[in-house]
Amino acid sequence: MAMVRNERRSDEATKPRRDESLSAETSKRRNKMRMVNHSRAGSGNKARRGLAAVEFALVASLVFVLLIGLIDYGWIFLKMQQITQAARAGARAAVVADSTTATVATTIDAWMDEADIATFSYVMTPGDPSIEPGLPIKVEITVPTNQLALIRTSLIPVPPNLKAAASMAKEGT
């Protein structure tokens, strides 16, 4: 049986291959068909690549808008912290024993300059820091948000004003 198997294999090896027996014209036709088939397959890949580009454009624009929103909100939060620090510093300047309204204004102005905020208003309650010890003094600072925004667009909602307040008890002997 083993010899029969070997004989069969040898018969297959001696047979001419199908491609070798084809005429030159038939092989040319086959080559053309292969080229046509490859071009059709390539057009499908181009369509897929085009679809991927459109999907990327849609997703990337959405991600870009979210990124800009995160950056803008982060900037507003930073400015809010700086305004709060200026209010605390103003309140601290107001509660010191021999403070005046001018020292409070100078302190708040210095902190707001450091934060690069030019337009703001503040209110000190009571208006004169020379009150008796133990009474509270409150300093409230208001800044319009439109001057703080990095990107002035209506896509990202922000409040019209940022407010920060600090209250401390008057010191004294």
Structure description:
This protein is an alpha+beta fold. It has one domain. 60% of the residues lie in helices and 13% in strands. A three-stranded antiparallel sheet has the order 1-2-3. It has helices at residues 2-14, 18-21, 24-95, 101-114, and strands at 121-125, 136-144, 161-169. Helix 3 packs antiparallel against helix 4 (101-114).
Entry summary:
By secondary structure, the chain is α+β, with helices and mostly antiparallel strands.
Reconstruct the topology from this structure:
Blueprint: H1 2-14, H2 18-21, H3 24-95, H4 101-114, E1 121-125, E2 136-144, E3 161-169
Antiparallel strand pairs: 1-2, 2-3
Q: What keywords describe this structure?
A:
60% helix, alpha+beta, 173 residues, single chain, rod-shaped, 3-stranded antiparallel β-sheet, 4 helices, 3 strands
Uncertain runs are none
Number of helices: 4
Count up the domains. 1
Helix content, binned percent: 55-70%
Report the major sheet: 3 strands, antiparallel
- Assembly level: single chain
Q: What is the strand tally?
A: 3
N-end to C-end Cα span: 120 Å
Mean pLDDT: 80
Radius of gyration: 40 Å
